[in-house]
Amino acid sequence: MYGDCSLAATLSYGAVLEPYLHPKPGGVTPYASEGGKSFGDFVLHATLSSRLLAWACLKAWKNGPIGVIASVKERYLREVVPRFKGNIAYGTFMLMAPLAVAIALSKSSEPEELVTTARDTIYCCTGRRESLLHYKILRRLSPSHLGRYRGELPDVASGGERDIPPYPLLLKLNSWDMVHRELAKGYPITLEAYRHSLNRVKEGRSVEEALLEALLKVLAEHGDTLIFQKYGGRAFKMAREEARVAFHVSERWGVRHAITWLERLWRGREWNPGAALDIVAVASGLLLITISRDASS
């Protein structure tokens, strides 16, 4: 399957599958909106993004990886951003774009190889152009917590560009955030979620239940940095502890019972684990790639 860019479309289906998951602790589902964002918004975003990811894969397959991530961000800025008010799932797109390039370059469709190639592509083939486009996108998506940088990185709202670093350094400097850290370190949490869900599917569980349990595991072990940004460290710690309780409940009483309990707590507080959901969306795409590959073999 080396260079099989149909897999980029399969990967993108994870961005549709994630909002379909229900019930879910915060976030958008077919039956629940969040922060003015609807299920339809996420489906439209995933549809538009799917075309761009397939295009990025083909471009990398024909011409190599240099400049592809910048080019696909330019198209995202031009074709996707104007369709929405605010940030719908840019974090998911950030994570999927390097993987789409990796699909074109990798000799295997195994997720472990794809994430390694994606990480290598970021470090070898991106620079300041990708960072400048990243800032432009986030300014257009404002308000978005994803671009509220502090310390060595200029805040997106500042409007300044002089101190914006090359993309790999930008990711490292903001690696306290889960999405940036995944890109900087080779998708470690994404792989955890993928492997957990794959094991559950092999045990006979439904894909939906497997991914919901993977989400609980991510929240229990890593928390959610969007909750930290919006509500502070105390809320972050409380959310992680409640997720740990829910994960233990799921092992005894089932994942739907645990998720329903956590959903009642978090939706009432307006807690949305958006960073963890971005990661689970990508893990969903990797799971779909594996399922489709195994079904055709």
UniProtKB/TrEMBL annotation:
<dbReference type="GO" id="GO:0016757">
    <property type="term" value="F:glycosyltransferase activity"/>
</dbReference>
<dbReference type="GO" id="GO:0046917">
    <property type="term" value="F:triphosphoribosyl-dephospho-CoA synthase activity"/>
</dbReference>
<dbReference type="Pfam" id="PF01874">
    <property type="entry name" value="CitG"/>
</dbReference>
<keyword id="KW-0808">Transferase</keyword>
<keyword id="KW-0328">Glycosyltransferase</keyword>
<dbReference type="InterPro" id="IPR002736">
    <property type="entry name" value="CitG"/>
</dbReference>
<dbReference type="GO" id="GO:0005524">
    <property type="term" value="F:ATP binding"/>
</dbReference>
<protein>
    <submittedName>
        <fullName>2-(5'-triphosphoribosyl)-3'-dephosphocoenzyme-A synthase</fullName>
        <ecNumber>2.4.2.52</ecNumber>
    </submittedName>
</protein>
